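Lecture notes, unit on protein representations.

Consider one protein chain, 697 amino acids long.
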Amino acid sequence: MRIRFIFQSFFHTIMAEESSRKFLDDNFLVNYVLRYLFQEDKTIRDPIHGDVILNRAEVSVINSPIFLRLRKIRCLGPAYLVFPGAEHSRFQHSIGTLYIADKILDSINKNPYPCIRIDDFYCRMIIRLLALVHDLPNIAFSHTLEKEGNLYEPQWEFKEFVTRIVDNLIECLYERALRSFNEEDERIRRILRDLNIDEKEIDEYIKENIIDEYIKEIQLLKEERKERVAKYASRLIVSDLLRIISKTVSNKMKEVILKEAERVAKDIRGQDIKRRFPKKLMRAAAMIVMNTICSDLLDYIKRDLYFCGIEGDYDDFFLRYAVIVPLNQNKEVVRLNKRGKPTEKVEECVLAYRITKPITGEVKTKVLSSILNLLDLRCDLAEIVHFHPAKLSLSAMIIEAVNFALQDKEKGGIMKGILKEKVMNMGDSELLYFLLNDKEVPEPSKRIASYYEKRKIYKRIPLFEWNELMGSPSYEYKEGKTVLNILRNPKHRYNIEVRLSNWSQHYGFDKFREGDILIYVPPHAKRLYKELETYIYIDKSPLVDRPYCITLLELAGVERGGERLLEPISKAVRIRKEELLHRYGLLWKSYVLVNPDIFLSLDSKERGELEKLLKALLRNLLLPPIILKRRDISPDATLKHLKSLLTPELPGKLANDTEEFEKNVKAKVSELSHKIESKDSTLVWNWVDRGEMKLSV
């Protein structure tokens, strides 16, 4: 009886469901393993949220080497050199995200009004696990190198890393699942030993004395069957995770992740593992963890403010009104196969926040206000921390230290493979140590990294502001490309930085070497306010003809003459949206950065000349390739056209090069004029070096 009592609490749910069976089939054993994996196991004390309870599957993932690596990756990258407390890691943030995701699930399931609930035990555990692993693909200096520097694909877009993560997750879950049999077996055998039963007689004793047939069969399962069931359970969990993650990535990467899910879903006997997570809830599950107002955002706002020593917090009152609803009440999402024919109909659901009372239709202004105040707080955090001028300079330094190694003409090919492996395995400090000490790293990268380590911050020269860059047609590079596209491209940015250093030597600033002039261009400003894509749910009521599930951006665009209820809400959201866009537009700035030793060695007049020179050279360098039709090609006409495009005021030696430049242009036009035969021929001019241009037919 004592032995049976030990197992009673664990088996009572399964036995109630499976009481009609006379033997243990694989489905029963998979349920047994899943319940074992999802049992509470440990409690972690978090400085932000307090006690966080973890189950066995989560503990096994946390203890895996690929997850422990997150301890070495800081959430805010170089910000710790500006805010000394900002040493918190992706490891802490991942656990906090799990806690918030569980809190959102509680709110959804406790909602008193009719909505779709996620009360299935398996689905809830999968969402918790998704929250825990959502940052696993982060590399060293994560968002600094990925989003700011554009050197690597961000998170789940990093194809090579995703495959490695998937295999590691399967392995750690499989090992813990296999222990579900061995641990219980060891427990019962230990009790029998305590009862002074001989070791040789234990198996026979189990057969004869354990009354419960299920427990008896589990203890006497063959190892081969245990392994098969453990593999099935671990692959089932990971394949469902991948299918949900596919809802958050680009279309190109979505295919890769779904193929990876298919690979994982192949059982060891070659049979497909059937998904257990409902399709219609996958997008909603992804939204609970990632994108818009989600557990990821809610944790990092609290955590970043706390560790940066900034007073402020949000009111999570709106979480009580979190609901899961169909995206469109009257329309189903139709999926097409490769031939374009419909294959199945899925009513997709999304996470939304209810802002009205279902019966009366009264607007709950406090819910809407708390959501909009959260967006303001997110903008405050960006202004104080993410866009701090010194932090941006440090970001540019670590980005270009890596970029110079990647683009180096002699060792760039070797370094690309080495660095890709390093950023996947190392933490921030380890990557910095590698850049400082490895023999293969080129000298400019080592020099920039040494300045970063000593906190000798490069001096900033403002280049473009967002309104200037986006508002002027003169910054269109060529069809389909803008100046922003060019400067965000690591290879183009490296070439421009090298040319600026060389040209500066030519125009009197002979101390400059490669790596002494850097360029920093943040991501597109639209990425800064993705939270405006949060869904708002408005119930059908006497004031509204039908239920609405629309984003804040869509709500801000509702014009007059629509629903009576929507117009005042739309006006409030529109005003706040315009304020946010204006604030984010002011935050966005790009810079040219100069070696601090050289910059500080110049007097104020020389600094002014250097600033003017770099801006002029860079703007001329970013001119589009100049295409001249045959009728315009003559030395004088070509020279006149080029002069109209060049920046008129250039300081120092450049002003004295006018005659030399004119001679070069006329000589090159005359040299190639005999090659122009047809009326449709064109000459294409491209900038190459020291203000000279390359002419081609």
